């Protein structure tokens, strides 16, 4: 899993980047210094050249061209140490004095490479020169070799090399130190992840208490891990429940089939046993379908099937469907449904949710008592209330009844698989409907509070957080 | 009727084809999507039973292609998926009815019959008649032997659906879907309650009952033989 490939390591890359940045800034600094230095020294040399020319012009004014030639002869010898060289030619290009050979006759400033003859030795040098015309038509060139250049260059080269080494050492060191600190925390996270993959689901990332991005990352990771842990536990519980709840019907099924086999399928007993077996398997299938439905609703992250649902009409239909049934069983079905109310949602799912809740209420309300179904608008929100006169649900159990397979002791004996309310909860969540259980004294009141209708409600619903199951109300 | 069954599970295919054959239908069975599409578009059928999940070419694609090819044969979709999205997708693709697996054969047979009759149903019939029972759809009035019977709206819908499928078995699920629009099975005796009320209004004072319970399958309305 972990690569030791140096260039893939974030640490090495960070360090290199750090060194590179350090170097770059140092080089820019050095280069600036160098340019300023060179310019200043260049200026110096120009001033030297100008001074020599002025001296020779003074000599001309004082003693004419002859004086200039004499001066050059004298200076030429003594100025070799100063690396100052001269050349004087007449109008026709004949050399009158000086040791510079081969200088262009054009007037002006020159930076050039020339040959100079000192004591009979020819030498190629770089000079900074100026060429002027003397009033009698002769041409004078004075050149100074900027000997400092070499010194400066070597100085700066040494400085640059030193800096480079310093940058590599210092930058690398600091970079490595910084990234190691950073990476050790990343590695903490990696090793936590590896631990978790290895089965240690309770492993968590340590926070350093620095409240920086990495601490926040660690906190988010831990929160995510807690959530996953919760879901895994929940899934495990559900799986256990599924296995547990199906064991009874499956063993009954197997017993019925044995009975049928023993009685022979052509006998009445055999046929009855087979009928019961078929019924049993239908019940098992139903449980599976219910689990699948819940999974599908919970997995439905899209509100693409949402459309306007005529809620009033739907409730009317439900009351027409269930009213006669309630009457038949000696119960009453009372409704209070204002007309013309619409919501956005999945029609089939809302219908199923309401139907489940109504059937639940009908199952629990004693004979002679009513089930009440009410639709109202309070504070801009739609509320559906379904109320029975049964024994209700104790406050401490109200959160649990929405979990899969939970059947409270009181209803253990009635038919059902404990999945109806889980489906209701899943559908309510999908629609961002708040599901509240209240005490109807006596009985249970289920309140469905619809979200405030927004123009693009359908989109809002998808991103809505888990609905609150208010058990304190 | 001539029926095409497309289903990749050989067990189900044999079971369905044999059952429909025993009811006197001519059944062609194929177990691949490609063959199914070929058969459906090249020979005339009264009803096509199409599995949704087929390897290679799935049911929705076949269905779309059948409809693109201009074949208007009613299609019954078999699906293991009972989600609203799946249902909508199937019906959008051009299915006429769908049935969720696992299903009882009687359920399938009833739906195939209902689909086979559909072209006749499509005609606007202002009055439905079964024996001496008459339903005037325009005036929304029901008469048994000339005497007006008062029905609740849902009882009327229930009776209308039964009468449109007169002579055939209609199952509980078909009634739940078409009369109440319930695409799930309520745990209470809704159908039984409404059916018994309807019967008491239609059949109680008459000599011969018209509504019959078909044990293990559903209900049927038909005139006395």
Describe the protein in words.
The complex is a heterodimer of chains A (473) and B (225). Chain A has 473 residues and is an alpha+beta fold. Chain A has eight helices and 14 strands. Chain A has helices at residues 10-78, 148-197, 213-263, 268-299, 311-328, 347-364, 420-430, 457-463, and strands at residues 84-89, 95-98, 100-101, 108-118, 121-133, 139-144, 307-310, 332-336, 342-345, 370-378, 381-387, 434-439, 444-449, 469-470. Chain A has a six-stranded antiparallel sheet. Chain A is rod-shaped and about 150 Å long. By secondary structure, chain B is α/β, with parallel strands linked by helices. Chain B contains nine helices and twelve strands. Chain B has helices spanning 10-22, 33-42, 59-68, 84-92, 105-116, 118-122, 153-164, 172-180, 190-202, and strands at residues 2-6, 26-30, 47-51, 75-79, 97-100, 127-130, 133-136, 141-144, 147-149, 169-171, 211-214, 218-221. In chain B, strands 2-1-3-4-5 form a five-stranded parallel sheet, with helices on both faces. A four-stranded antiparallel sheet of chain B has the order 6-7-8-9, with helices on one face. In chain B, α2 runs parallel beside α3, α7 crosses α8 and α7 packs across α9. The longest helix of chain B is centred in the N-terminal third of the chain and has 13 residues, at 10-22. Chain B starts with a strand and ends with a strand. The mean pLDDT of chain B is 86. The chains are: A alpha+beta (473), B alpha/beta (225). Chain A binds chain B through residues 285-286, 289, 292-293, 296, 300, 304-305, 317, 320-322, 324-325, 328, 346, 348-349, 351-352, 355, 359, 362, 415-416, 420, and chain B through 82-85, 87-88, 100, 102, 152-154, 180-190, 193-194, 197.
């Amino acid at each position: 899993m972990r690569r030791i490939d140096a260039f893939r390591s974030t640490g090495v890359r960070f360090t290199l980047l750090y060194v590179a940045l350090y170097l770059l800034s140092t080089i820019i600094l050095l280069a600036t210094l160098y340019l300023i230095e060179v310019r200043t020294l260049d200026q110096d040399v120009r001033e030297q050249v100008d001074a020599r020319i002025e001296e020779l012009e003074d000599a001309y004014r004082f003693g004419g061209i002859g004086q200039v030639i004499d001066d050059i002869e004298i200076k030429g010898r003594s100025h070799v140490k100063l690396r100052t060289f001269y050349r004087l030619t007449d109008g026709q290009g004949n050399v009158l004095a000086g040791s510079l050979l081969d200088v262009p006759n054009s007037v002006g400033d020159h930076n050039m490479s020339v040959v100079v003859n000192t004591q009979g030795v020819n030498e190629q040098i770089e000079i900074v020169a100026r060429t002027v015309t003397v009033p009698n038509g002769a041409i004078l060139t004075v050149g100074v070799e900027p000997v400092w250049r070499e010194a400066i260059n070597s100085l700066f080269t040494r400085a640059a090399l030193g800096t480079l080494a310093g940058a590599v050492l210092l930058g690398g060191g600091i970079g490595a130190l910084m990234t190691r600190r950073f990476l050790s925390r990343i590695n903490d996270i990696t090793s936590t992840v590896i631990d978790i993959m290895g089965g240690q689901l309770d492993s968590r990332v340590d926070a350093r208490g620095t409240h920086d991005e990495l601490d926040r990352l660690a906190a988010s990771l831990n929160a995510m891990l807690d959530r996953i842990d919760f879901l895994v536990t929940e899934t495990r519980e559900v799986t256990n429940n599924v296995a547990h709840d199906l064991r009874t019907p499956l063993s009954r099924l197997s017993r019925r089939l044995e009975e049928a086999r023993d009685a022979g399928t052509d006998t009445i007993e055999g046929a009855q046993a087979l009928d019961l077996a078929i019924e049993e398997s239908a019940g098992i299938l139903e449980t599976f379908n219910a689990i699948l439905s819940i999974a599908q609703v919970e997995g439905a992250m899209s509100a693409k099937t949402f459309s306007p649902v005529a809620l009033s009409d739907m409730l009317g239909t439900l009351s027409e469907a269930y009213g006669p049934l309630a009457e038949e069983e000696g119960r009453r079905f009372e409704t209070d449904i204002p007309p013309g109310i619409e919501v956005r949602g999945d029609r089939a799912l809302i219908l199923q949710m309401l139907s489940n809740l109504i059937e639940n209420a009908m199952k629990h309300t004693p004979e002679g008592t009513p089930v009440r179904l009410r639709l109202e608008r309070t504070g801009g929100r739609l509320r559906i209330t379904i109320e029975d006169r049964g024994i209700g649900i104790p406050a401490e159990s109200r959160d649990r009844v929405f979990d899969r397979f939970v059947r409270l002791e009181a209803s253990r004996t009635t038919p059902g698989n404990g999945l109806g309310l889980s489906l209701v909860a899943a559908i309510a969540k999908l629609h961002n409907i708040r599901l509240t259980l209240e005490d109807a004294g006596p009985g249970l009141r289920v309140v469905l509070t619809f979200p405030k209708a927004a123009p693009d409600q359908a989109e809002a619903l998808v991103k809505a957080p888990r609905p609150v199951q208010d058990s304190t109300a | 009727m001539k029926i095409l069954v497309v289903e990749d599970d050989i067990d189900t295919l044999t079971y369905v084809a044999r059952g429909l054959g025993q009811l006197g239908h001519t059944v062609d069975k194929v177990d691949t999507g490609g063959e199914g599409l070929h058969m459906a578009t090249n020979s005339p059928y009264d009803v096509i039973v199409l599995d949704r999940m087929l390897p290679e070419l799935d049911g929705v694609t076949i269905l779309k292609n059948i409809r693109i090819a201009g074949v208007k044969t009613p299609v019954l979709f078999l699906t293991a998926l009972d989600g609203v999205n799946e249902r909508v997708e199937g019906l959008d693709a051009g299915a006429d009815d769908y049935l969720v697996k696992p299903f009882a054969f009687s359920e399938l047979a009833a739906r195939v019959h209902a689909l086979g009759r559909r072209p006749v149903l499509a005609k606007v019939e202002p009055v439905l008649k079964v024996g001496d029972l008459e339903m005037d759809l325009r005036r929304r009035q029901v008469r048994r032997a000339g005497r007006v019977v008062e029905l609740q709206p849902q009882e009327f819908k229930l009776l209308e659906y039964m009468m449109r499928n007169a002579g055939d078995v209609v199952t509980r699920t078909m009634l739940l879907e078409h009369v109440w629009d319930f695409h799930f099975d309520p745990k209470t005796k809704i159908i039984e309650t409404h059916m018994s009320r309807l019967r008491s209004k239609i059949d109680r004072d008459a000599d011969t009952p018209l509504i019959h319970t078909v044990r293990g399958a559903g209900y049927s309305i038909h005139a006395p033989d």
